[in-house]
Amino acid sequence: MPPTFEVQDISFSYEAIPAIRGLTLRIDEGDHVALLGANGSGKSTLLRILDALYFPSAGSVKFKGEALTQKHFQQDEFSLNFRRRVALVFQNPDVQLFNPTVFDEVAYGPLQMQWSKEDVMRRVDETLQFMSISHLRDRPPYRLSGGEKKRVALASVLVLDPEVLLLDEPTATLDPKSQSQVVDLIQQWKGTAKTVVTATHQLEIVEDIADRVLVLEAGAVIAEGTPSEILSNSDLLLRANLIHAHRHSHGGIVHSHPHLHGHSHHEHEH
Amino acid sequence: MSQHSFVESTIRGFTRAVSKALQAEHAATQPGLLQHLDPRVRVIGIFSLVISVILCRRLEAIAAIFLIAVAIAVASRVSLKSLAKRVWLVVLGFSGVIALPALFLTPGEPLFTAAALHLSVSVQGLRTAALLVLRVETAATLTTVLVLSTAWTHILKALRSLRLPAEVVTMLAMTHRYVFLLIETANQMFESRQSRAVGILSASEQRKMTARTAGVLLSKSIELSHEVYLAMVSRGFRGEVRLLTDFRLRPRDYVGLTAFVFSSCLAAWMGR
């Protein structure tokens, strides 16, 4: 079976600024991959390339053995088939919520796929219930709280039951409760055929959401491994700007050591 | 004006803009004359009246269409108070300035003369100015009544089904979709500025601040519109407006369409 994504030596630039440089990776069906990297490391750009919103200036991207090129996306059938199977949740939910009501928002994708009205209504109702947001169905999305917006954004792609979910910082800016709800949701898909690629710089969620971690720096993969292998490598995390040297004093000793934000408590020996 | 009152009034303005938009969405779902008609009939009917306004050269005919517009507004549950504030006063301000010179420059029978200023208002000048103002007021009232009584997505779908190019419809859809984001961004920028403001800014500093804000907003708006477009494409958008509601012409739509077209033709013929 061909891999879900086969990315071969791709490069991409925003005008003169390179964002991805010679990146190669392979993602198989059912993989749960975390893309770790500091701001500007190329995580969001890579997700957009995997979602065929951007096309690399060099190299190739294949989805299930088929090349993702602009020419292919000019064909309605190819484009709609890909859009139904691969979904991207944007980092900023506001850009993804552009319909008058939550119901319209969730119905947007199925309507683009030209499903029958009955199927659209049924699937939207099921998805709203699944995401526990049925009570929001008639509310305008731009009037929701941050956590609610994120759930609606997720619902708006889950309604299509995609095979691949690309999540860009899904827990960023969320309160702890909303954050754990999103993590629980991603965990539910572990062991299923759903492929999930999550871009994040929140190390504390990585073990819960991924089986494999790719560390990005300046648009290239600098390390790959299991969550425990990557998270135990302080030098690597320090190099990728995912942790920083924290200078403090206690017991009359001033010293510094690698420090991860997100944990309220840490222990170490002198 | 103090800096705080300037910033606060701007924030209030943004909040008002969003709440007015929400009221408009609400009005579009209320039972009323236009709301009972197919959106395509509403679009064709209102535009045919607008065209007849443009063609009319007689004040009385345009006044008659204006009265029809007001009657449609009342029957469609569009608040006249809101129309007066949002359309009539604003249009009067803008078109009044443009029409003002016509009062004095159009030659004809003098109606009033200000000898000290060497200016006189002619009957023909007054008529020309009134014609311009009333024409703009009527066209603006008609289009506002359409927008307030019809969900934006329905207007877009109606325009598309009337063969307006997909590119134009996409442009309109994008504008509407991201305008709220822009208002919210502008609101946040002003709130953030307000939270850091100390002392009072001079008028010139306030102008500079407004110009800088407008510049930043422009760059942000370009970025936002690009992001919104990508989000639409990611969920399968291919340039077509697709809705759950199917447009279907019923007998009352044919009656409505006939009434609109007949009124428009009659007004255009009488006002020629």
Question: TL;DR?
Answer:
Chain A has 270 residues and is of the alpha/beta class. Chain A is built from eleven helices and twelve strands. The longest helix of chain A has 14 residues.
Q: Numbering strands along the chain, what is their spatial order in the largest sheet of chain B?
A: 1-2
Largest sheet of chain B, if any? 2 strands, antiparallel
Strand content of chain A: 25-35%
The CATH homologous superfamily of chain A is termed P-loop containing nucleotide triphosphate hydrolases
**Number of helical segments of chain A?**
11
Mean pLDDT of chain A: 88
Structural class of chain B: mainly alpha
What descriptive keywords fit this protein?
heterodimer, A: 270 residues, alpha/beta, Rossmann fold, 11 helices, B: 272 residues, mainly alpha, 2 strands, 3% strand, flat
Tell me what you see in this structure.
The complex is a heterodimer of chains A (270) and B (272). Chain A has 270 residues and is an alpha/beta fold. Chain A contains eleven helices and twelve strands. Chain A has helices at residues 43-50, 70-73, 76-85, 93-96, 102-112, 117-130, 146-158, 176-188, 206-209, 227-231, 234-239, and strands spanning 5-14, 17-27, 32-36, 58-63, 66-67, 86-89, 164-168, 195-200, 212-217, 220-225, 244-250, 253-259. In chain A, strands 6-7-8-3-9-10 form a six-stranded mixed sheet, sandwiched between helices. Chain A starts with a strand and ends in an 11-residue tail after the last strand. Chain B is mainly alpha-helical and 272 residues long. Chain B folds into two domains: 1-29 and 152-157 and 164-244, no CATH class; 31-150, no CATH class. In chain B, 76% of the residues lie in helices and 3% in strands. Chain B has nine helices and two strands; from the N terminus they run H-H-H-H-E-E-H-H-H-H-H. Chain B has helices at 3-28, 39-55, 59-75, 80-105, 123-149, 152-161, 166-196, 203-234, 251-270; strands at 110-114, 119-122. Chain B has a two-stranded antiparallel sheet with strand order 1-2. In chain B, strand 1 and strand 2 (119-122) form a beta hairpin. In chain B, helix 2 packs parallel to helix 9 (251-270) and helix 3 (59-75) runs parallel beside helix 5. Chain B is flat and about 60 Å long. The N and C termini of chain B lie far apart (50 Å). Chain A binds chain B through residues 48, 51, 53, 76, 79-80, 83-84, 87-88, 90, 92, 94-96, 98-100, 104, 107-109, 111-114, 117, 120-121, 140, 142-143, 156-157, 160, and chain B through 22, 25, 151-153, 177-178, 180-181, 184, 224, 227-228, 230-238, 242-244, 246.
